[in-house]
Specification:
Strand content of chain B: 15-25%
Strand order of the largest sheet of chain A: 1-7-6-3-4-5
Number of strands of chain B: 6
Largest sheet of chain A: 6 strands, mixed
Order of helices and strands of chain B: HHEEEEHEHEH
Structural class of chain A: alpha/beta
Oligomer: heterodimer
Helix content of chain A: 25-40%
Order of helices and strands of chain A: HEEEEHHHEHEHE
Number of helices of chain A: 6
Distance between the termini of chain B: 79 Å
Strand content of chain A: 15-25%
CATH architecture of the domain at 73-165 in chain B: 2-Layer Sandwich
Structural class of chain B: alpha/beta
Shape of chain B: rod-shaped
Helix content of chain B: 25-40%
Largest sheet of chain B: 5 strands, mixed
Radius of gyration of chain A: 25 Å
CATH topology of the domain at 73-165 in chain B: Nucleotidyltransferase, domain 5
Distance between the termini of chain A: 67 Å
Radius of gyration of chain B: 36 Å
Shape of chain A: elongated
Largest interface: A-B, 52 and 46 residues
Chain lengths: 176, 166
């Protein structure tokens, strides 16, 4: 018996809804995505089980790096140049040539860099000044997990002296 | 895939009326590359986006270093961390005992259950690492100990520790 050849059935799928959803998702991701701001130094965060979220605004961030350097950053640009402008101008010659070349002038650095390197002895004045500029500021300490405890202790003492007794440490969430 | 269709050309209209109606031309645009690019972008944004906000751990310091807080000796536990991350603990004025980090959680929980008024004094050597502090405070939080304080490691503490470990 001869085999009956099956005719190929051409399939036409309406792709419109699929494409619609695709666009919807694209718009969603494009609008919600926030690009990571360029960081001056790479910080490897320690882990903890704590689950408080970092507040989105009014943040003053003290960054402690592996090599005992301290960076101070404020999220509002206006406040940043007002608080840090003077120190940046004074310390301009101490910054690395890369940083100086990247920003060009102390004014630009204070305005554009998210955080600038500061001296430990300048820190108390800066913290007080920042709090005067914006009393709602929340202080956040972002320390590298291999930073020395000594410098962290100094920073905490300064915080205590400047009456910032409540602050947050940034950590990564530990799963288990 | 996607295609734009306009009305099909109507042939008969041309013959009749004198006025020439502009004829609609059927446009068919191949939307495939457009949709391709869109999905490429979609994948890009989906992969690069990170929804997580960084986690934080809250710390409260006493308002001023000068304020003396009286703590009963039986409620006070002192944790001393040496430079090499070894942990020593003692209650009141007992002599310090060594504990491994893995057993610390159980120890803290047990002590906290025995005495809910437990206050822990954390002393970390200046040569230690930042993550030691975070790890230990995290253990406090997990064990439910909300009363703890951070104090500097003094010469005296080091002497006590040296006596124990030798």
């Amino acid at each position: 018996m001869p085999k009956i050849k099956k005719g190929r059935v051409s399939i036409r799928i309406d792709m419109t809804p699929f494409v619609d959803i695709g666009f919807l998702l694209l718009t969603f991701f494009m609008l919600t995505t926030q690009f990571k701001p360029p960081e001056e130094v790479v910080i490897e965060l320690p882990f903890s089980h704590s689950q408080y979220k970092l507040p989105e605004s009014d943040v003053m961030m003290i960054t402690i790096t592996k090599d005992d350097r301290i960076f101070l950053g404020l999220d509002a640009q206006g406040a940043r140049s007002r608080v840090l402008g003077e120190v940046v101008k004074r310390n301009w010659d101490y910054y690395s040539p890369d940083v100086r070349k990247q920003y060009g002038s102390p004014e630009a650095l204070a305005k554009l860099a998210l955080s600038v390197e500061v001296n430990v002895k300048d820190l108390p004045d800066l913290l007080i000044k920042a709090r005067i500029t914006n009393p709602k500021l929340r202080t956040v300490v972002k320390g590298d997990k291999d930073a020395n405890y000594g410098i962290t202790e100094d920073v905490m003492n300064i915080l205590q002296k400047t009456q910032i007794t409540r602050f947050n440490l940034i950590t990564n969430l530990e799963h288990n | 895939m996607g295609a734009v269709d306009s009305a099909a050309p109507r042939g008969h209209e041309k013959k009749k009326g004198k006025k020439r109606k502009p004829r609609r031309i059927g446009i068919r645009i191949d939307m495939t590359p457009f949709v391709d690019i869109t999905f490429l972008l979609l994948t890009f944004f989906m992969l690069t986006t990170t929804m997580v906000q960084p986690q934080t751990m809250e710390i409260n310091l006493p308002p001023s270093a000068d304020v003396k807080v009286e703590v009963a000796e039986s409620n006070l536990m002192t944790l001393r961390i040496k430079e090499d991350a070894s942990i020593f603990w003692n209650m009141g004025i007992e002599s310090p005992k060594r504990v491994e980090f893995d057993n610390l959680k159980a120890l803290l929980r047990e002590r906290h259950e025995q005495n809910p008024k437990l206050t822990v004094l954390l002393k970390i050597d200046r040569g230690g690492k930042y993550h030691m502090m975070v790890d230990i405070i995290d253990e406090f939080n997990v064990a439910g100990i909300s009363r703890f304080s951070i104090a500097p490691m003094l010469e005296l503490d080091l002497k006590v520790l040296a006596k124990v470990s030798s």
